[in-house]
C-alpha cells in the first residue's frame, strides 16, 4: 500500500524519505561488484555512464506529480531516480559535464537548477540540496529501478496518470492550485498552455464549425463531443527520453486555431522562447529554450497541407481549472495508449500498470475505453 508522509511521526517520515533518496543503497567500503549503465540525451550531445553497486539494485524510483515537474517537462509527472550518495556520472570521454551543451534553469525560490540538453531539450536532471543526483529514468538504456515513491500526488486532483500505486511510499503532499478560466475578447472560452518560465504561452479554443466542416481537420475533433479535441497517452521511447517521463500526454490541435498563431514550420522566430529539434525524418519538436519544457510536436503524417497541420500539444502545460486531464476540453483514447508494446521492452511493469489503469479509468468515465484514430 502507498503511504503519505503527512500525519506520520518525524522519525517515520525521515525513514521513508531516506529510502526514497536511496541512502541505504550506497556502496559499502571495500571492493564490490559494480554494474555500469549508459545514458544519453536524444541527440547524443550529452552522454555518460553510472557505476552502481550491484548489491544495491534495484534502486527505488519515484513519480513526481508536482506542478514544477509538469510545467518544466510538459508531462503529467516526472519519472526519476535519485542516485545513491557519492555516485556521480562518468561523462563521455572521461571529461566533465559538457557545460556548453547543457542548459540550466533555476526555479525561483529553489536552491538547485534543472539541467537539459540545449540542442534537443532532453531533461538531464540535477543535483539535489543533499548533493545527490536526481535523473529521469528515461535517460538510461536499461532498467535498474523499481518505482516505489509517489511524490506530491495531491497536486493532481483529477488523478493525473496515477491510477495504481507503484510502491510503499508517497512523499510530501502539496495542494492543487486551480487555474482560472480564460475567455477571448469575444467571450468564448480559451484553454491556456504555458511552460514554467512563461516563455512559451498560447491558448486553444473549442473546435469551430469551420474545423468540423473541414474534411481532414474534423477527424481530430472528439468523436463523442464536438466541443472537445482528441487526447492520448504516448509511451514511445523518443518522447520519453526527450521529456524525462515514461509517458507523455498529448492533445491534438489544428495549428491554425492556436493563438497567437504557431509558425507553419515551427522555425519562424520569435515565438516566445521556443526552440526546435528534428527528432526524426517526420517529426519536429518544440521545447522551451529557457526552462526545457516539451511544448509541441509536428508530424508530417498530420500535415496534408500547411493550413491543415495538426500539432501535438503537451498536456502537462495546460492550465485547465478542472485538473490536469483537461476533461472539459478533451476526450481520451483510454483504450489504446500509443507505443505501449514498444514501451514494455523498457519498463514492462510500469507500462502494463499504466495501460490497464488508463483503460479502467476510461470505462469508469465513458462507460467504455475509447479507441479512435489519431493519425
UniProtKB/TrEMBL annotation:
Residues 37-146 form the CENP-V/GFA domain. Keywords: Lyase, Metal-binding, Zinc. Belongs to the Gfa family. It holds the Pfam family GFA. This is CENP-V/GFA domain-containing protein. It comes from Apiospora rasikravindrae.
Amino acid at each position: 500500500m502507498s503511504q503519505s508522509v503527512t500525519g506520520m511521526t518525524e522519525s517515520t517520515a525521515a525513514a521513508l524519505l531516506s529510502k526514497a533518496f536511496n541512502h541505504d543503497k550506497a556502496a559499502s567500503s571495500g571492493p564490490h561488484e559494480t554494474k555500469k549503465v549508459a545514458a544519453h540525451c536524444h541527440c547524443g550531445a550529452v552522454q555518460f555512464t553510472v557505476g552502481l553497486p550491484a548489491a544495491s539494485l534495484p534502486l527505488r524510483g519515484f513519480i513526481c506529480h508536482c506542478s514544477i515537474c509538469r510545467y518544466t517537462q510538459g508531462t503529467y509527472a516526472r519519472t526519476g531516480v535519485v542516485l545513491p550518495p557519492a555516485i556521480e556520472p562518468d561523462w563521455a570521454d572521461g571529461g566533465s559535464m559538457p557545460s556548453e551543451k547543457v542548459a540550466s534553469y533555476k526555479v525561483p525560490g529553489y536552491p538547485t537548477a534543472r539541467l537539459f540538453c540545449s540542442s534537443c531539450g532532453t531533461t538531464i536532471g540535477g543535483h539535489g540540496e543533499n548533493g545527490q543526483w536526481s535523473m529521469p529514468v528515461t535517460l538510461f538504456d536499461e532498467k535498474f529501478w523499481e518505482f516505489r515513491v509517489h511524490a506530491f500526488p495531491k497536486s493532481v486532483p483529477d488523478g493525473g496518470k496515477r491510477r495504481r500505486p507503484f510502491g510503499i511510499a508517497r512523499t510530501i503532499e502539496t495542494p492543487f492550485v486551480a487555474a482560472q478560466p480564460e475567455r477571448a475578447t469575444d467571450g468564448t472560452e480559451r484553454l491556456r498552455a504555458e511552460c514554467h518560465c512563461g516563455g512559451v504561452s498560447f491558448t486553444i479554443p473549442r473546435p469551430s464549425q469551420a474545423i468540423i466542416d473541414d474534411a481532414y481537420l474534423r477527424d481530430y475533433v472528439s468523436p463523442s463531443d464536438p466541443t472537445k479535441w482528441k487526447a492520448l497517452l504516448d509511451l514511445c521511447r523518443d518522447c520519453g527520453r526527450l521529456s524525462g517521463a515514461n509517458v507523455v500526454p498529448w492533445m491534438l490541435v489544428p495549428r491554425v486555431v492556436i493563438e497567437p498563431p504557431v509558425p507553419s514550420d515551427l522555425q519562424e522566430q520569435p515565438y516566445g522562447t521556443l526552440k526546435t529539434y528534428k527528432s526524426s525524418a517526420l517529426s519536429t519538436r518544440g521545447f522551451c529554450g529557457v526552462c526545457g519544457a516539451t511544448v509541441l510536436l509536428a508530424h508530417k503524417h498530420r500535415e496534408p497541407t500547411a493550413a491543415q497541420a495538426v500539432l501535438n500539444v503537451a498536456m502537462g502545460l495546460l492550465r485547465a481549472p478542472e485538473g490536469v486531464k483537461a476533461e472539459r476540453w478533451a476526450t481520451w483514447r483510454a483504450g489504446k495508449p500509443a507505443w505501449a508494446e514498444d514501451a514494455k521492452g523498457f519498463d514492462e511493469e510500469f507500462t502494463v500498470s499504466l495501460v490497464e489503469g488508463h483503460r479502467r479509468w476510461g470505462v469508469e468515465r465513458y462507460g467504455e475505453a475509447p479507441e479512435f484514430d489519431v493519425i
